[in-house]
Write a structure and sequence with these properties.
By secondary structure, this protein is an alpha/beta fold. The strands form 2 sheets. Strands 7-6-5-9-8-10 form a 6-stranded parallel beta sheet, sandwiched between helices. Strands 1-4-2-3 form a 4-stranded mixed beta sheet. Helix 5 runs parallel beside helix 9. The protein is elongated and about 60 Å long.
Length: about 250
Amino acid sequence: MQKITQIYGIRAVIEAINADEHIDKVFIQRGLKGDLFKELEGILRKNQINTSYVPVEKLNRLTKNNHQGVVANISPITFHEMETLVENVLENKKTPLFLLLDQLSDVRNFGAIIRTAECTGVDGIIIQKKGAAPVTADTIKTSAGAAFNVPIAKVDHIKDAVFYLQASGIQVIAATEKTENTIYDVSFEPPTAIVMGSEERGISPSILKAADKTAKLPLLGEIESLNVSVACAVFLYETVRQRIKS
């Protein structure tokens, strides 16, 4: 299994970005100043790279090396362009299945979702460039290596992906408790993209509004929600059930 690559130092991170390395996340020491740091910030903003400002103690835990206030993780996988991924899938499959993750932040949930996605034949996962869980060693481990098998694409905004998929003839179904429809009331047989929300906030209102359909899981106990990776698995296997049956 490919190991996550870590780089450190302001200049090294700048050069890695300019070399089109797949930077998953950059950790920056709070209060960092200087012209070189300002250059780095500009490049991070331009490329919309996931950035977190942290205490120096956090960086010291990430690496024993002279980090100069900056540590970055290079993704162990290669991300796909969303448009190219969708076009390639549509050329080869009549009823594709995509998964959109709206601000999912936990790397282990992400890994578990990738594993289930691989097992249920998902053709691609689409995440947002900023705010999404990075692909870390924990993600790879939790996915049982499935992260190397399922294409993952990054977009500036999930809503853009929703509109592109709809224009490509793919229905978008949002998983939310804010609906009267259960997953058993909705057809997953046509070309479909399922949207799962973040652990804390669920799906953002603008994406809920843009979705073609909404669906929820019936909950019969006292707890009001399921872990997002478990909920995602139920949605994906209901899709499999309907498609096998048809």
